[in-house]
Amino acid sequence: MGKFLVTLLTGAIAGWVAGKLMNSKHGLIVNILLGIVGGIVGSFVLGLIGIGASGFIGGCVVSIIGTCLLIWIAKKI
User: Fold this and answer.
1) Handedness of CA 12, 15, 19, 24 (dihedral sign)
2) What percentage of residues in the chain have a pLDDT greater than 70?
3) What is the DSSP string of 6-75?
4) pLDDT at position 68
5) Dihedral through CA 17, CA 74, CA 24, CA 67, nearest 10?
6) 31 touches 12 (CB < 8 A)
7) Domain residue extents for the chain
């Protein structure tokens, strides 16, 4: 249960920060979902180039990068 709450918190923070960075307006639920999916995307993309992260801050940074990438792709489509 604790890990689930940390995942939601990380997703919410990443979604909110990425939304501000990318000038995108979304609600809390969309931010959480974007942040969680962004974490997966960020881990995959950064893993391809040999970069990894650990801890809460590292997870947030990776999630923010992945979420920004998702928002950028969505704006292009």
Assistant:
1) negative
2) 99
3) HHHHHHHHHHHHHHHHTT----HHHHHHHHHHHHHHHHHHHHHTT----HHHHHHHHHHHHHHHHHHHHH
4) 92
5) 0
6) yes
7) 2-76
Residue 1: how many CB atoms within 10 A of its CB? 5
Q: Which amino acid is at 16?
A: W
pLDDT at res. 23:
87
Q: Is 1 helix (H, G, I), strand (E, B) or coil?
A: coil
CA-to-CA dists, residue 56 to 17, 23, 25, angstroms: 15, 24, 25
- Residue pLDDT, tens place only, 39-53: 888 888 888 998 878
Q: Output the six-digit token pair for 54.
A: 């650990």
Cβ-based neighbour number of residue 39 at 10 Å: 24
10 Å Cβ neighbour count for 64?
23
DSSP 77: -
User: What tokens were used for 22?
Assistant: 């990318």
Query: Which amino acid appears at position 31 of this protein?
Result: N
